[in-house]
Amino acid sequence: MANRQSGGSNTAAGGAQRPNGAPQNKICQFKLVLLGESAVGKSSLVLRFVKGQFHEYQESTIGAAFLTQTVMLDDTTVKFEIWDTAGQERYHSLAPMYYRGAQAAIVVYDITNQETFARAKTWVKELQRQASPNIVIALAGNKSDLSAKRMVDHDEAYAYADENGLLFMETSAKTAMNVTDIFLAIAKKLPKGEQAAGAGQAQGRRITDADSAPRSTPNCCK
């Protein structure tokens, strides 16, 4: 199985030493997986979130790509280990390797394509059946910048998400609308644990070798 490797910078995202000897931010690490049909914009969402970039023509992911990014929540730095999975049907059987042990998932559909919404519901059912019992699932209706071509009604998607206990936002990787917000909403909903001690500087933006094998990442605060 081949993985697509992505590059990025090591820009610090917070957690520096506080004045007067105050404790530093605790760091919590979570595994997050993106699922959805091919071409709904999963990779574009991740690229926008991690690097603040958007490419009009994004290469299709082969297998999965692995990236990391951190967000700040009050006294906590949440580090996401993100698995961006391929949407092509031939890779479907590999998906459990990536969502196994994940604490969070974003299921993405294209608001201009009703079939991708139906497929998103299938992914949600699969996660509810086979993923970790306490997994936080967000539903992202991507390509909101193409609302003139909308085929999936916002209220329909919202009602579905509400019935299934999902976070829900419409997003646009192109305009950046709600991209950071959906990751922040997930970070707020994730349990931060009681093991946190406060030492250490927060991990910054980092892109890790995508050729590494999929692995489960425990909910870990340190």
From TrEMBL:
Question: InterPro entries annotated for this entry?
Answer: P-loop_NTPase, Small_GTP-bd, Small_GTPase
GO BP, sorted A to Z = protein transport
Q: Which reaction does it catalyse?
A: GTP + H2O = GDP + phosphate + H(+)
Compartments reported by the entry: Early endosome
Q: What is its main location?
A: other
Task: Give the molecular function GO annotations.
Answer: G protein activity; GTP binding
Q: Which Gene3D superfamilies match?
A: P-loop containing nucleotide triphosphate hydrolases (3.40.50.300)
Alphabetical list of Pfam families matching this protein? Ras
Recorded hits in SMART domains, A to Z, give:
RAB, RAN, RAS, RHO
What's the family? Belongs to the small GTPase superfamily. Rab family.
Protein's UniProt name: small monomeric GTPase
